[in-house]
Amino acid sequence: MTPLQIQFKELVVKRVGTGCEITCMVCDMAAGMGVQIATGTRERQVMGWTFHNNILVPNFSIQLSTTVLKGIAFVYGQKDIYVWGMYDGQM
After folding, report:
1. 52 Cβ neighbours under 8 A, 6+ residues apart
2. pTM score
3. Angle 48-53-54 from CA coordinates, rounded to 5°
4. Are 66 and 88 in contact (CB under 8 A)?
5. pLDDT the model gives residue 78
6. What is the structure's pLDDT at 69?
7. What single string gives the DSSP state of each residue in 6-74?
8. In terms of Cα–Cα distance, which of 37, 39, 89 is closest to 63?
9. Is the pLDDT of residue 81 over 80?
10. Which helix (H) or strand (E) holds 85?
């Protein structure tokens, strides 16, 4: 085993949506709130999570009407996120 394999420890396993492919993901450290995580899937779902004290808590989930996600980003200093479409170029 390499040193990296010895240090890795799986903390949480969650099914995202219906198990469809995750196409994008972003994380950010929020002061005192743990890690904020957002994921996007091929089935057009955007989900937000908070990881704090080894607990993964879902914050929101929304399914977009037409946009398959290829990119996602937190908006600095706000509670918003930007998403980019894979085929239509929408933001």
Report:
1. 33, 34, 35
2. 0.74
3. 75
4. yes
5. 76
6. 87
7. HH---------TTSPPEEEEEEEEETTTEEEEEEEETTSEEEEEEEETTEEEEEEEEE-SSPPEEEEEE
8. 39
9. yes
10. strand 81-85
